[in-house]
Amino acid sequence: MFSHLGITSEVSPESDFSVLFVDDEGPIRAALQRLFHRANFRSYFAGSVKEAKKLLYDQSIRVVVTDYLMPEENGLELLRYIQEHRPAVVRVMMSGHSDLQLVLSAINENEIFKFIVKPWDDQEMRLAVTLALAQAKLVDRLFELTKENERLRSILSEIALLCPDSLLRHRTANLNEESEASRRVQEVDHA
Amino acid sequence: MTPFEATATAVSATSSSDPFSVLLVDDEEALLQPLVEVLEDLGYTVTPAKSGNEALAIFKSTPIDLVVTDVRMPNGDGNWLGKQLRSLDPNLQIIFMSGYADFSDLCMIVNNHAYSFLQKPFGLDSFRSEVKQAAAYVRSIHSNNQKSRSLSEQVVRARQELAFRTERLEIEQERLAGILADATFGFIAIDDAFTVHNVNPWMTSLFAEIGVDRPIAVGDTLAAEYSCPFCAKVFALCSACRDTREPVTEYMECSKTEKYLELHAYPLNFRGEQSGFALLVNDKTELQQLQVRLHQTAKLASIGELAAGVAHEINNPLAFVRSNLHTLNEYVTELAALASTLYKFADNGDSLPALDLTKLLEKLDIKYIMQDSTSLVEETNDGIERVAKIVRDLKTFARADNAEREDLNVNQAISDALNLTRNELKYTVTVQTDLAEIPILRGFPQQLVQVFTNLFVNAAQAMPEKGTLTIITAPDNDDVLITVTDTGSGIEETVLSRIFDPFYTTKAPGKGTGMGLSISFGIIERHGGTITASSKVGIGTTFEIRLPVNPVVEE
Asked: Does some domain include residue B173?
């Protein structure tokens, strides 16, 4: 199903990406643990935003699924924190509070990847997490490709310096400008 | 009054002390001089002239009150002069003098409307008295003219004023009649004998609509024998108002026209005297329908609010119950797979190789399933129990009247309400609580939580920018006193008096049902307590709730 993304939803060799689930309710965390018990990624669980922020030091966490309504800080506040400090982490929100305003602000302000309504459907939850992981991989791939692109361009410009053909030099200059622009875009995307 | 008239009045204002000017005409120098002296002694201004021509010239340039002239003179005789002067001033008084006047002279003098005729020779005394008399006459004429002019001016002015006032009264009367004629309410003024003095078209057509056998008109007498319920009601209301001299208001549904009417009778006073009474009838049909609809909407809205609040509480346990059951289903599938393998061997009478069994157990993750199953079922049961409790609570909430009284910890109710409203409060409101040790009451904790929730949400809405919500509980004699104070926008006095009325709201349509505080009022009443509000615009609002420890309430 996701073969074109280079991944499958089937159990594949252990992923080096982890997923962090945040919910103040123990039984919810337990249910999620059961659900992803046999998944090919590591799962972390946090009972509060404070705990989640600590766990986020682990750079392997690339997807966060958080509840909205929690005592002390809520899910939106966690997402805001992640957006600022770990923008490459893919953000998913779940809530039993079917408040349209909440969904809108989560999507518009916090650029969440998915919104899951409680009570969730297990298939949907699995799919959402799988897709979020794929998204995280894509983000990484994009970053790698951008780097590779830059490396190749710098080689090209070195060649251009050695080559007397003015046309080639001209083209290289143009390419460098484009590359610079796209690098900036990537920086913004990738922090 | 024109400026000219004003000047004329001023100039002609004469009295005996005013200068009086006499034109004295005679061709005989010897006669002229002594006469001038006589008149000047009398205090008159005297202008002498020796001929008619000269006199005419003087008259044209000098103000003259009286002319004394000789008849026979060269260069314009007396009669000629008289004619000339009369043509200039028809009211001029002239005294003629002559030594030898013939008949024709006398005729001329008479025709010239002489004041008098002096036969020469005359004594100076008679001359003096003649002129004095003439002067008095002229002055009286002047003064009369003056008086009559001012009188006629006054009459004109009075007439104008009268016309103006009459017109104004007519306009005012028309306007007043118009106000009643165009009114979209019924008006009828009746004296104490029930005779109609005033009735407007709206009222007339209402009577017609209702089908009173004869139209109500001015001069009619309202009688008790009208058979329709509306008329009976009108009669009863008017009687009550007549007897008590107090305003009375009643409402009635008119089945015939499907109208909901407000009837208001009030006594009339005219110049301090009781003067019958008036009856106003308002069509409140739309308002009534609106209120009925609003009541239903409010019910639905509160159900909606409740549902939204409850949804979160239900959805959380539902989430893990659902997921757990799904997982349990997978466990069962795997256990079934194990069982079917075991059956296969059992049916064949074979014994299962230990290695295969271990592999199968591992593959199916049976160890984990065994470990997890107990807690999975326990947690799921807890979740279902939680949902069941919420549903039970809802039932208690919905059937508050049938609820049993239980121990009521007011401080706990306040904490619960603060938890429930945390989301509304946390961004703008600083909450300060000073919860004293207070006795445990008997009552309905959930309902009290509802009251506090309502007060806190209102307070948060009154403080859209930052503010402080202070909640204090304290024992006070046999009561528990709770004050909830915000530093919000405050409530105006006119609004404050109505906040506990059902459906009264200052919030935008759809934002509030206007039921919150009236429900709260009812709940506090059910606890035998009181709730009051005080407020200062721009400073904030305080709600004070007083709950008795031993309430006297109907069970």
From this structure: no
